[in-house]
Write a structure and sequence with these properties.
heterodimer; A: mainly alpha; 72% helix; rod-shaped; B: mainly alpha; two-stranded parallel ribbon
Chain lengths: 67, 644
């Protein structure tokens, strides 16, 4: 099928990753109470962002190699 | 129960997900030119995508919720559903069966039955499958809407209709490809959404070593958490095989090793993974034979390690509840609104009449219809004049001691997730419910259009006509799912009966496929009557056996009780074993007594001995399915040894 699934996966997780990173940076330390004091939003947001960007990168590379 | 409060960020994450799946449908719409594009993806999808969709179609939300529940109830032995009850069957499908499904050019599993046997077997299989998928999707949507209602306080009807509408839109636009793509998206949502929760939970209990120590205490006194009435060896929750080998009474599942290995590991597992069109359809959409055969193998890798994600949280919850860390407890069963009304009346009455504690407790328990904690009830009765209605409800809910195991995974999400991560985890759950519905609906519309409509109602129409029918039936399928969701929500017995009937139909199915694919002498009479006989055997077996603690009725034994099993699960596994054996023997004997209706030539590509072996020489030795299958089996074996 014409759509490379890596585009939507990559874009979606990048967007969610950015949101989580922002939340992790902007919310006060009280927000980390449930997560045992760990700033899980910041940490996990970075993981999602990296994952999303990797997917986008592969999709982009796949597209240019197809040409 | 107090609702979870979602922040703006949580809603944003949900919204991003919904936009993403709708966009996928939108983009794919351009490529839907023929009915085959819409219903079968025209053999166009790479193996890694079909592989992840394959596992995702199985990892529905009910599985996610149910496995965590079993993790708390039975501990690590739940992994048998993965390592015994899935991996071997997935490898068998890839190595031995996929060449026939994919090579025969059948568009569905029932169509394979028609090519191999005749219309009767196909008709039987496609009707039962169609009914089953509609109910499965209804049951799953009901669970979703109930969950959103209880957890977030959303309206049941609105949740049900909106989620169904989203699924309808993207399936209608992109067909099977849409469903497969969103399943891949769901796979990553679940993995990335739940991994941090498991990490935090494991850290909170103090790591694997501390978890094992806590679970040893749980195993010796599971009654303290209302998990089980008996007590077990300290390792019953933390070893997979030892308690099983010691017999049905030594493990919390109440299952013996033969029922586990033959009933679950062979009959139920092979019956599901090798014949259920819902999963097989994903592999059949792959772009070529080698991709189709690699699909289940790729899927087997995450399947093998999923217990970390889905079973471990249940075990963590049991350990947390034992120490009541930060006031954590296993979520209690939810008291219904109608029960509240009666219970509150009973409490007020008891306080007004100054009833004896014991009498008051009995009356209130009867009103709530659940097991309660006497101390908590007494306290509520004492303090009732000072409590307002909402607090009273909360206190009554808190007094319930029966566990709502299905709430286990969400209780952890609620405990550990700050706003943000919460949105991610909940979206993962929402995603798995919706893609579960999409998966069922796409399997349903294919079977309806090709195996029922084209076969019996309107033959020889143009492809455009079947495409139109495929779209219509998608709408109908979703409508029927909604009806089923309401049905199940009104009569909870309906769900038990439906799942029971599925069990009757599914248990013998693998015998028919096994004989059909690997023994050319199997005749169509043999297949049809064998399957029918197998189904009747399972119904009869169920009617004549029971499990400890069950009164005769929906749970079996209504024609008399010949055998009492230690648990429902043991009864279920043995039922499967009997049904399979009956179907196998009947098919064998009837085939020998009847004449073949298909020649060797007609069966080429459908039966093992008459089909040229798939040539794997084009692939490097390490990429061949047989080699990959062996590697996976060894991996699975090692996991079993580690957690012996």
């Amino acid at each position: 099928m014409g759509l490379d699934i890596r585009w939507p996966i990559g874009l979606m997780f990048s967007a969610v990753g950015v949101l989580l990173v922002l939340q992790g940076l902007l919310a006060g330390p009280d927000a980390n109470k449930p997560s045992l004091g760990i700033n899980i939003n910041l940490g996990w947001g970075c993981v999602l962002l990296v994952f999303g960007l990797l997917m986008v990168f592969f999709a982009w590379r796949g597209k240019s190699s197809a040409k | 129960m107090s609702h979870i409060h979602l922040g703006g960020i949580d809603y944003s994450i949900m919204a991003i997900y919904v936009v993403a799946i709708l966009a996928i449908g939108w983009v794919l719409k351009r490529y839907m030119k023929t009915s085959a594009d819409f219903l079968t993806s025209s053999h166009s999808i790479p193996a890694w995508i079909t592989g992840l969709a394959f596992i995702s179609a199985n990892l529905g939300a009910l599985e996610l919720v149910g496995m965590a529940a079993s993790g708390a109830k039975y501990g690590i032995a739940t992994c048998h559903f993965y390592w015994v009850g899935a991996i071997p069957a997935m490898i068998f499908l890839a190595v031995f069966m996929m060449p026939f499904y994919y090579g025969s050019k059948a568009r569905s599993v029932p169509e394979y039955l028609k090519l191999r046997f005749d219309e009767r077997t196909r008709c039987l299989n496609s009707i039962s499958f169609a009914v089953m998928t509609v109910f499965a999707s209804g049951i799953s949507m009901n669970a979703l809407a109930k969950l959103l209602h209880q957890l977030l306080g959303w309206n049941y009807d609105v949740s049900l209709w909106i989620c169904s509408a989203i699924v309808l839109v993207y399936v209608l636009k992109g067909g099977l490809t849409s469903a497969i793509y969103t399943e891949v998206l769901q796979f990553f949502m679940i993995v990335l959404g739940f991994a941090p929760v498991v990490y935090l939970g494991l850290k909170d209990v103090g790591g694997w070593g501390a978890l094992k120590t806590s679970l040893a205490a749980v195993a010796q006194n599971p009654a303290a958490l209302e998990l089980n009435t008996k007590s077990f060896q300290p390792d019953a929750w933390t070893s997979a095989w030892k308690p099983l080998l010691e017999g049905a009474s030594a493990n919390p599942m109440g299952v013996d090793v033969i029922a586990m290995v033959f009933g679950l590991g062979f009959v139920l597992s092979f019956g599901y993974w090798c014949t259920n069109f819902l999963v097989v359809q994903r592999a059949m959409a792959a772009k070529n034979m080698s991709a189709a055969r690699r699909t289940p193998l790729i899927a087997a890798v995450p399947k093998m390690i999923f217990p970390v994600l889905v079973i471990l949280p249940g075990m963590i919850a049991a350990a947390l509840a034992l120490t009541a860390k930060d006031g954590y407890r296993l979520p209690p069963k939810i008291v219904s609104e109608s029960a509240y009304v009666q219970a509150i009346a009973a409490v007020k009455d008891a306080a007004a009449q100054k009833l004896d504690d014991k009498v008051a407790f009995e009356r209130i328990s009867k009103a709530v219809e659940m097991k309660l904690s006497p101390a908590k009830v007494a306290a509520v009765v004492k303090e009732v004049p000072a409590l307002d209605e909402a607090t009273l409800k909360d206190r009554l809910q808190d007094a319930v001691v029966e566990n709502d195991y299905d709430g286990v995974i969400l209780s952890l999400v609620k405990k550990y997730c700050p706003s943000g991560l919460l949105g991610l985890a909940l979206t993962g759950l929402l995603a798995s419910f919706m893609s579960g519905m999409a998966g069922n609906v796409t399997a349903f519309n294919t079977v309806w259009t090709y195996d029922l409509y084209q076969a019996y109602i309107a033959r020889n129409k143009s492809d455009g006509h079947y495409m139109w029918m495929g779209r219509c039936i998608t709408v109908v399928g979703i409508g029927l799912s909604i009806v089923c969701a309401y049905l199940v929500s009104r009569w909870s017995n309906a769900m038990d009966i439906i799942q029971l009937v599925f069990g009757f139909v599914n248990a013998p199915l693998f015998a028919t496929f096994l004989l059909g694919m690997f023994w050319k002498r199997t005749t169509s009479h043999g297949a049809f009557f064998g399957l029918l006989g197998g189904t009747l055997t399972s119904a009869l077996f169920h009617a004549l056996t029971s499990a400890v603690g069950n009164a005769p009725g929906v749970k079996g034994g209504y024609l008399g009780v010949l055998q009492v099993f230690p648990s429902d699960m043991a009864q279920n596994f043995w039922l499967a074993a009997f049904a399979f054996t009956a179907c196998f023997m009947l098919t064998l004997v009837i085939s020998l007594l009847t004449r073949r209706t298909k020649t060797d030539d007609e069966l080429k590509g459908l039966v093992y001995s008459l089909t040229p072996k798939t040539v794997d020489h084009a692939q490097a030795w390490y990429a061949r399915p047989a080699f990959l299958g062996c590697v996976l089996l060894v991996g699975c074996f090692i996991l079993n040894i580690i957690f012996w």
